[in-house]
Protein 1
Amino acid sequence: MKDSITYRLPFAVMLVLGVFMMVQYYIPASPVVSARDMLLQWKQPLNGFIILLAIGGVAAVHVRKVWKQQKRWGYSVVTLVSMFAMIAAGMVGGMEEGSVFSDWFKYLISPIEATMFSLLAFFVASAAFRAFRARSTAATILLVSAAVVMLALIPSVANHIPIIAQLSDFILKYPNTAAKRAILIGISLGAISVALKTIFGVDRTLLERSR
Amino acid sequence: MKLSVALQKLNALDRRWIFIGVFVAVAVPFFIPVSFVAEPTPTTLTFDRALGEALNRNQPIVLDVDFGPQTMAEMEPLLQAVLHRVFQSKRPVILLTFMTESAAPLRTVLARMEQTYQLRYGQDYVFLGYASAYAYTMHGLGTSFGNYFHADDRGTPIEKLPLMKNVHSLRDVSAVVNIASNSFPKFWIQYAVTPFDIDFLAGTTAVQAAEYFPFLQTGQLKGLLGGGRAAAEYETLLLRSGVLTRRGDATRGLGSQSLALLVILAFIAIGNVGWLAARRAGRTS
Amino acid sequence: MDWFDESRLAHLLALLGFAAAFFYFIWKGRRGTQLYIRPIDALARMDDAVGRAAEMGRPLLFAPGLGSLTDPVTVAALAILSRVAHNGARLFTRTLVPNYEPLTWPVAQEVVRQSYLRAGHPDDFDPDDVVYLTSRNFTYAAATAGMMMREKTATNFFVGHFYSESLILAETGAATGALQIAGTDSVEQIPFFITTCDATMIGEEVFAASALVSDDPVSRSVVKAGDLCKVIILGIIAAGLAAAILLDWGPAGALGQKLAGILSAFRQGDWL
């Protein structure tokens, strides 16, 4: 089985394309650039198929729920009706300003999503309430830094007590940036090693399992 | 004794009280206007200087706008301020987006700008519309616009747009500005700015801004505006330089933001008092 | 025709250096050399967290982030999912996997299916436990938070790339009393996870954890390649720091200038 072409082909495709995309970065010659451009353009139509997969996925789960009358199947009906109504509105009436699709987007989806986003203000407050306790020296430093940065964001504080603004600027620019940069370096190295593992077929677990 | 018991209760305050506190803090300034002025910080001044330099180079700039309805309250004032600055300078602008839902609100904003500054579409600005596969397109624009955008948002082939006559790739623009609520500035840096050595500026949400400070120091990012607060600072700057004539939405939002921060700080203090009381009670018992 | 962009020489050398370390450690791994890797707290707690859910008789929830399959962190998250789902299946505990990316969804489904198979209970797998929800992040957050509330998940895992919805997910989980383990490469979301979760894998710990959960010694040894490169990067940073200090320090100014010259020439490829 492991010698079969169908087993080896995906790894071969991945190896060739992965190595090509790595190497092209260093070669400005026009045949290489146009080959790269062609590959990049192939990716675009793939997105259309991904949308179909998504619609199929949502429909399959919820139709099954309604069919079997599972718990809370009424919500599945709402989901299915909303999804297909939105698709139909876009396909029939277009998506221009003033169309049904655009209005539904503007007056239904936008406020609902904006509401979800604004929940963050409440959740930040409750998370900060629980997390910022002077339990230890490190926790106290965290608490004080957070307080300074928050105070600096209030204009009347920042304008009247310049030291707060300067301290906040220092915290953001130096300790914060140093830590972020260290994390970023680690992430990048980790990401490169996962990428190399995938390209060179060292870690085949995911591909093998999904076959 | 009673006081200590009451204080201990604060340690595990029901989070609904916190929610009520934040709601009141955000809502009050809508009814009782509190006026604040956000003094521009060095970061905001650097953004304006870098944008000014790019605009002076006599080449078009690319403005990529990527935010949806969720973050509109935070991002739209920022976009407006940047657009005023750009259109006032009379330099050509190429707009595009990698998020489908950004297109409609952007068209509305552009229609307003067109009236305010008497802009001619196709010459002063173009909107290339939406492109999918952002990372690939960002990288691809380094060598060609035409391969990724065949027509603009109105369906005009891009070779028929006067503004695009001399713009073949990102090498023909003076800077890319990305106003985004997602990770797109990072992708721009990875896929276009570093490989093709392009001047790049970004406007992001406040949460995201902290991630981009390292790039600001390395020069991969020439300027950064982070969230509503930075937008308010930019509005102050533009008011002072005469680009804006009246204060914008970001400055108006400062009241809610400031009061909410004070309330959060108060709750943090309350939590610590409760925690200390609980710890002391634990010790004595 | 130009066949090599010289300005990218330093970049190429860095990549070749990393690749050399990568293959060297693969070779060592294949020879069966045992390499020490620092234990990761969140990983150690993962198995207990699954056990807790089994004791409580409630399901697990694993959110593999909002990244696509092209994001290395998503690949790492799916490897960790495989371990979580396998442990869950052994203890007859369901693993709910809400997906944001249509392409990640079938792969996640297959990973969980295989985990049930390896645990010896293929019939217990319910494909509806691994669902595609939506590709809008706050809608995803609402749907996933709803799942936590309705199913009363005992343990929540958030591993992968996240945006601002991270706090909505983790704070809802904290409110339901679930034990929570997170891991992300989204630098700006790490503070939110740290304040709301019981254990958090910071950045590269996710990649290291994904290698550690695999039984393959070769895969584990690759973590060492990153460590070696980090030591080299630290050396370069130290050299830069030394150059900056020496430049401002009268008697050693010339030495500092030389060091700075070498570093910047290397960066620009001038020394070729």
Note: The beta strands of chain C are 60-63, 95-99, 130-132, 155-160, 179-184, 199-202.
Protein 2
Amino acid sequence: MGRAGSLHVVDSLWPSLEPLLDQVQRPARYIGGEEGARPAERGPGKVAWLLCYPDSYEVGLPNQGLQILYEILNERPDAVAERAYAPWMDLEALMRRDGLPLFSVDTHRAAGDFDVLAFNLSSELVYTNVLNLIDLAGVAVRAADRTGDDLLVGAGGHCAFNPEPLADFVDFFVLGDGEEVVGEITEAVAGHRAGGRREVLGALAGVDGVYVPAAYAVTHHGPSTRVTPRWPEAPETVEKRTIASLGDWPYPKRQLVPLTEVVHDRLNVEVFRGCTRGCRFCQAGMITRPVRERPAAQVRTMIADGLQRTGYDEVALTSLSTADFSGIEELVADTVGPADGAGGAGCPAVTVSLPSLRVDAFTVGLAAQLQRARRTGLTFAPEAGSWRLRQVINKLISSDDLEAAVEGAYSQGWRRVKLYFLVGLPTETDEDVLGIAALARRCVELGRRHVRGASVTVSVGGFVPKPQTPFQWFGQNTVAELRRKLALLADDLRRDRNVKLKWHDPEATLVEGLASRGDRRLGTVIEEVWRAGGTFQEWSEHFDYDLWLDAMGRHGLSVEDYAYRHRDAGETLPWDHLSAGLHKDFLWQDWQDALAESGLEDCRWTPCYDCGACTGYGIEHIVASAVPPAGGSQGTGQGVLQPGPVPVRLRAAAPLAGVS
Amino acid sequence: MRVRLRWTKQGRIRFCGHRDSARIWERAVRRAELPVSYSQGFTPRPRISFGLALATGQESDAEYLDVDLRLSPEETAGLVPDLPARLTAALPDGMAVTAARPLVSGAASLQEAVTSCTWEFALAGADRGLAADWVERVRAAESLPLQRERKGRSITSDVRPAVGGLRLTDASSESVLVAELGTKPRAVRPAEFLRLTAPPLPAGRVRRLHQWIMRDGERYEPLAPQAGVLEPAGGAPVAAGCRAAPAAQPEVCAR
């Protein structure tokens, strides 16, 4: 069985681990052996990476970023990469009892057998898990206490754009796309490790896109936090990395197929990266600019090869807004297959899921193609309940767009659509909140024209202002205010049996907000919550609000300062030394435009606003179609039947959508 | 046409549960590009019927499943010899197809047909003498009451008639117990078996060695002609990779 290679037998923890697996829930998540998992052989001088997703296997395995870097590193002659995930609490307890460290699921080697432990940071609520996993790996949790050959701890992902709350625990952060920079990091580690830890960290600080917190000093001046270089190798501003062309990186080539059920258990093909719709609340859209479409022919090859290789019958076309992909309708039609099924008579069609859909680009034609296979859930994200507020957040979809998309779905046989909203947005009034209910009722009404029992699920999240966005200056709504708004909404919908309301816990929203815009002082709070047992905080059954409040209080840090306070123009923010390419004055202007209820066009199809993301890095959009690819008003806020040029600014506030 | 497969589940893959195995099989038939029939409805699934579920953590030398192919009897006969190699290549390490045979139409399903399974228990850390005593007590027992929950009610039944073929051997480091446990009317589970008489035997690795169909006083494996599988023309032995069912072992079967 799996103990191939005598080299691995020596170092594998498997013999100690196997007896424990009979005693834990879902043991298959610890065995590895996924189709596509083939870490490279170890070799002298190779840098060994342990890529770790700081949540359970079921959540972490599908992460495409981690899988992409896993393949790229294993293709390099100077690196090997394996994977680790957070062991669930039952196994962790047994591991700690028996003195077993964090292990890779590939060869079950101990984390200590690697050179670099690298985390993917997708959410602030995993920070306590990161500390727990560093500890479980067998090294000091604080970076300053690690010495000599101890693991180098790295992290990347969206949260790295304000990494200060984790700065005391992580040796280096990576900003932006990882495809190229992981190779440069490998070379820096290999080339300098003989010189000791300080030399390696210095070399890493000199790699573009890499931030080494130890190389910087932090000073506080009133509300401002300044992070300035104290090592000669460290640049004043760390700029993110951006790959110029997605077509040069057709990864993952061998997507991992797990042996046990995970979330998003299907083939995933990334059709483009970056988004320039310009939604002001959306950190992903701001930090991943510009738009880089994958060539359509490559997308088709990746789908065809991927389905054959994995045996999946479902493919997700991923991006931040997949309906915007040039030629999306033909792509979906061809993927679903010929009318009588892809494999001939009796063989079902391939299911295509589009995880993020803008209503203004979702057409009846697209719905008709999708429904030929199994109908997966359709989620639209109007985000706000009124046109006024959608202008504030620059989600420029008209009520006509929304109604056309929703009706399109019902007319093609969907019985339920899901609508996603945020509450706690800047300038939000109770009228805006109640607009959510009105919109949901309107959708049910439209659905009844086509299907019996049409229903709508309304999912409401609390808004958390994110770094590197125009809303980074906004004071987050208090827990009490979010609760009041949710109660208002729930009360208004209490008689609507066809509208199902779901919402996120406002207390978790607050904690996410603390970490989102936190500074280095928040590190002690995270450490205390972890030491008090507060792991898996993104799992509602394990989230513990009191642990966070108590730790904040003990260190004299106020929730008001970190989350609820509006920042002003002159304030130096804790992440101002890190850049996603966006000029701070562009972001500030966009914030002022938001307050003036003024929208901003998508620059993919209109002139450049010089946000900085393209011009600063000498790159540009790669978009196959010079015009918006699908129907709808395409974020112009104009009527769907009015093609042609659109105004750059939309000053006039239209009537509230769906609110009488 | 329906085809019956025998397959193994050995090593780390034993930690995948029944549901996981079913998903692995659905992907494997697509990877192997088998012309499988699909169910109708909103979520078409390949028509695969699994036999008796194997609990998470247990290994098996003899799992069975029936799969419906969109092929004529002649086409099926042509494909069957290739199936073990073709499907094994599409399955993860530890899972392998060891035999494949077409089924006559109307053959009893595995769930209906299988009447007993032979199990092997590695008695981790059990004292050899205690284990021998335990086996003697079970052999000598007139009745073996087993209390089980059914629909929220506790029901006690005598499972003595369903227990047989006890054989205790010494492997290099631990004792190994083999037993044949009946599946009708309700299967005696391996974990229940070890608790049949106090003190219970300590549970270690469990492996299913065989599944049996007992009919008219004769016992045969689900790939035997009596189970409804079609013999290849010319009476050739069972397809590649198949181990012929062991001849009846009087010692094992003695009750």
Note: Chain A is about 30% helix and 15% strand.
